Amino acid sequence: MRTLKKKNTLITGLPGTGKTTLIRKIAGALKSSNPSGFYTAEIREGSIRKGFELVSLTGERRLLSHTNIDSRHRVGKYRIDLDGFETFLDTIDFENPSAGPIIIDEIGKMECFSRKFIGLVENLLDSDKPVVAVVAMKGGGFPQKVKARHDIVLFELTRKNGDTIFEEILSLIQK
């Protein structure tokens, strides 16, 4: 009987617990392994959050969502630039054989408007490369499907356990 290795690591948690901060710290610690992927960054005007941008691990940036763009795709007050998101995904060389772990921030409602993104995530989770991804804590659909996979380890981040989870995730990936 074959043992299923849990090579995919998911991080979930409530808003404001530091999920993006943790995934950026993990990406930095794995730099010598040549990770590929992206994280999200808030767009703020003063103290008001206006949207999110995508940042690749090589530094490319693209708008994901904003309160002041025209789009039929919406999550709360944010409208999603779906075409821009899919164009951004094409700039990341997930298939590069010399690339190491895959970093994804995040598998959430906004990103899951894209069928292209869903297909990409499924392929990456099924690949030989380890994936470290932030996944939405609440809601159903694709994020729930990903959390139900048998080849994942799921960590719930709180404001108090970030350092412990960081060390555990690095240990899992570097095995």
Write a brief structural summary:
With 175 residues, the protein is an alpha/beta fold. The chain has helices spanning 19-29, 82-90, 115-126, 141-147, 162-173, and strands at residues 8-13, 36-45, 48-56, 61-66, 74-75, 78-80, 102-107, 131-135, 152-157. A nine-stranded mixed sheet has the order 5-6-4-3-2-7-8-1-9, sandwiched between helices.
Shape-level CATH architecture: 3-Layer(aba) Sandwich
- State the domain count: 1
Strand order of the largest sheet: 5-6-4-3-2-7-8-1-9
CATH class category: Alpha Beta
Query: How many whole angstroms does the radius of gyration measure?
Result: 16 Å
User: So what's the overall shape?
Assistant: globular
Mean pLDDT value = 94
Percent of residues in beta strands: 25-35%
| Number of H/I helices | 5
Elements, N to C (H/E): EHEEEEEHEHEHEH
Low-confidence runs (pLDDT<50, min 5 residues)? none
Topology:
Elements (H helix, E strand, L loop, with lengths): L7 E6 L5 H11 L6 E10 L2 E9 L4 E6 L7 E2 L2 E3 L1 H9 L11 E6 L7 H12 L4 E5 L5 H7 L4 E6 L4 H12 L2
Parallel strand pairs: 1-8, 1-9, 2-7, 7-8
Antiparallel strand pairs: 2-3, 3-4, 4-6, 5-6
Helix pairs in contact: 1-5
Give descriptors for this structure:
175 residues; alpha/beta; Rossmann fold; 9-stranded mixed β-sheet; 5 helices
Descriptive report:
This protein has helices at 19-29, 82-90, 115-126, 141-147, 162-173, and strands spanning 8-13, 36-45, 48-56, 61-66, 74-75, 78-80, 102-107, 131-135, 152-157. The protein has one domain: P-loop containing nucleotide triphosphate hydrolases (Rossmann fold, 3-Layer(aba) Sandwich). The model has no long low-confidence stretch (mean pLDDT 94). The protein is an alpha/beta fold and 175 residues long.
